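To fix ideas, we quote verbatim one protein's residues and fold tokens.
>
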Amino acid sequence: MEPSAFPGVYRSGRDLYTINALPGESVYGEPRRTEGGKEYRQWDPFRSKLAAYLLNGARPPLFEGIRSALYLGGSHGTTVSHLGEILPDAPIFVIEKSPRSFAPLLALCKRRANLLPILADAQLPERYAADAGTVDFLYQDIAQRGQARIFSENADACLASGGRGLLMLKVRSVSQSRSAPSVLAEARRELSAHRLRVGPVVDLAPFSRDHLALPVTA
């Protein structure tokens, strides 16, 4: 097991791992392995767009200096469970609007102290901005239209000046007919209108088709 270029993320060959916060337990059936007295959870890029981004061309710094984070679209907690292990000392506020998904997310967060779930709609950041406060990192993975607008409004409400973010842009959730470059250009315009700077965009294929990772700086 070797440290990767990203603090808290480890590699064995092509595979990514994080140190298991709860040794002996898997979150989504992922393999575990023990080396040097530590247990590591394998991070599946076909189930986590953040893992796919790290494999496909993410650049440091990404996780360095993060003291708190806001995660939009927690779902069942697959990705955020790994993010919580990368940032063990940072409170991560996890927004999920689906009661069906929130139930397993809540169960997961009860056993991981730095994950703080909130049942809310990411389109309404005013409903949880007071709880989350100002964060250093904003992550979004939601499947609906207006993704760049939602990210921008959450950045306006919660992201610190100079803070970093990642927008996982789901092209086909924005439009079934428009091309990926057209959807990306629209997202760039929306983010720029909110004074957010977009870094090098990374295609997440073959792990997630028609998905693009947009690193953002406030």
Q: What stands out?
A: The chain has a mean pLDDT of 96. The chain has seven helices and 13 strands. The helical segments are 49-56, 78-86, 99-110, 129-132, 147-158, 171-174, 180-193.
